[in-house]
Amino acid sequence: MATIKDLAAKVGVSVATVSNVLNDKPNVGATVRQKVLRAAKQLGYRPHRAAQAMRKGRTRAIGLVLPDLTNPFFPQLAQAVESTARNLGLLVCLIDSQGCAEGETDGLILLSQHGVDGVIWCPVGPQIPAPLRTLDKPVVLIDRPKPGFAAVHSNYLMGGQLLARYALQQGHTRVGLLSGPSNLESAQQRRNGFVRAFPQRIDIAWEVRVGFDGILSREARDALLRRQRATLIVAGNDLIAINAIHFLAEHDIDVPDDVSVAGFDDISWAKVVSPRLTTIAQPLVAIGTRAVELLQERMSGATIPARATAFDVTLIERDSVKNI
């Protein structure tokens, strides 16, 4: 493995000059800087992160805390974050909260003990974990906004509105809602975007709250069997929608011939479930990239306002919604 001395010898400059270039210090001319960087690439030079951490008090590692890696949405989001972070020379330490506040708290404590330079956090619930209140590191929220934090997420209201408009286009005016958890702002915005888009034209036949893990409660299963009261079921996310399709099939209720179903997220399973799921696609690459960029800016000392950045979403029409 190439060393700083190897780079200095190849370019014909001092070790101190090479060090200044690699640490992005301004007291090196442009021509020499380019020669050093070119030599580093040619020799395959890689910085010694542990030594850098000791010198600078920074680990170049960030934490990523996600609620539930059994939901395909979150591994896709993690991949977007990790790819961007790696390109910036950052190591990602991933924590799966496993859907509970205790797992979230334990994970944040562990990240603090390992000295991460910042945290990207997708909350499990409405509470702010105690370790986060005392963590003296930058924090950026992803997917689930919260007042007082910089956050990056999709335009959930827009997604709900797109589904409502599409429902009317397909002739559906009686809708059942399998809404997400009421204590999550992201779920509430999806629901409100749909319900408030055309209140005089769409009748909400029934509504049941379901966790984003997709597990259907008895109340939800009973509501699905009352399909005669709704021609379309709109789910808070794709996991809920897919579980609803499976439950209906077990009771010989065909989707979409007997009742239509739509979801939200466009997880990878949406394309392979039968029928293929009509849903709202979130731009996960853009969300993950922006979250890492914001965190990097904060870790570099920039002041970032505690406000949300929302990305537009798109409706993906597949086979699970019937025109009536």
Task: Please write out the topology.
Layout: H1 4-11, H2 15-22, H3 30-43, H4 49-56, E1 61-66, H5 73-87, E2 91-96, H6 101-113, E3 118-121, H7 130-134, E4 139-142, E5 150-154, H8 156-169, E6 174-179, H9 185-195, E7 203-209, H10 218-225, E8 232-235, H11 238-250, E9 260-262, E10 279-281, H12 284-299, E11 308-311, E12 314-316
Annotation keywords:
324 residues; Rossmann fold; 3 domains; six-stranded parallel β-sheet; four-stranded parallel β-sheet; 17% strand
Model description:
This protein has twelve helices and twelve strands. Helix content is 41%, strand content 17%. It folds into three domains: 1-40, 434 Repressor (Amino-terminal Domain); 56-154 and 284-312, Response regulator (Rossmann fold), CATH 3.40.50; 156-282, Rossmann fold (3-Layer(aba) Sandwich), CATH 3.40.50. The relative contact order is 0.12. By secondary structure, it is an alpha/beta fold.
Short description:
The chain has 324 residues and is an alpha/beta fold. It is built from 12 helices and 12 strands. It folds into 3 domains: 40 residues, Orthogonal Bundle (434 Repressor (Amino-terminal Domain)), CATH 1.10.260; 128 residues, Response regulator (Rossmann fold, 3-Layer(aba) Sandwich), CATH 3.40.50; 127 residues, Rossmann fold.
